Amino acid sequence: MMTRMYTPIHIDRSPSEVFDFVTTPSNWPQWHPSSLGVEGATNHSLTVGEQVTEWFHVAGRRGQVVWTVMERDAPHRWVIDGRIVGRNAGGVVSYTLQP
C-alpha cells in the first residue's frame, strides 16, 4: 500500500509564479526542510523527461534521490517520480495549482 499525503495551502502569488518557483530545483533547499541540495539542471523549471539528483535528510536518514519529471501542464500540474539511489524505494510528488 502506498502512503499518500495531501496538503492544501494558499500562497498569495499567481499560479505561474508559484509553478515556476516550485518546479525549479535550485529553489528546493530554500523552502523544503528535507532538501539539502540539488545537482543537474537546477536553474530552470523542469520539463518532461528531465532529471535532477537531490540530497535529502528525512526522519534521521540521509540519501540521494533521482527525480524524473513525468508530467507537466504549466502552470497547473507537475509530477515527478523519485528513485532513492542504492535502494529499491522511491515515491511520486505532484503539485496541482489553482487560481
List the helices and strands and how they pair.
Elements lengths: L14 H8 L5 H4 L3 E6 L10 E8 L2 E13 L3 E8 L5 E7 L3
Antiparallel strand pairs: 1-2, 2-3, 3-4, 4-5
Descriptive overview:
The protein is mainly β. It has one domain. The protein is built from 2 helices and 5 strands; from the N terminus they run H-H-E-E-E-E-E. Strands 1-2-3-4-5 form a 5-stranded antiparallel sheet. Strand 4 and strand 5 form a beta hairpin. The longest helix has 8 residues. It is globular, with a radius of gyration of 13 Å. The mean pLDDT is 94.
Provide a quick synopsis of the model.
This protein is mainly beta.
Radius of gyration: 13 Å
Largest sheet: 5 strands, antiparallel
Q: Spatial order of the strands in the main sheet?
A: 1-2-3-4-5
What's the SSE pattern? Answer: HHEEEEE
Shape: globular
Give me the count of strands: 5
- State the end-to-end CA separation: 32 Å
Domain tally: 1
Overall structural class, as computed from helix and strand content, comes to: mainly beta
Helix content: 10-25%
How many helix segments? 2
Q: What is the mean pLDDT? A: 94
**Share of β-strand residues:** 35-45%
Unreliable residue stretches: none
Keywords, separated by commas or semicolons:
single chain; 99 residues; mainly beta; 12% helix
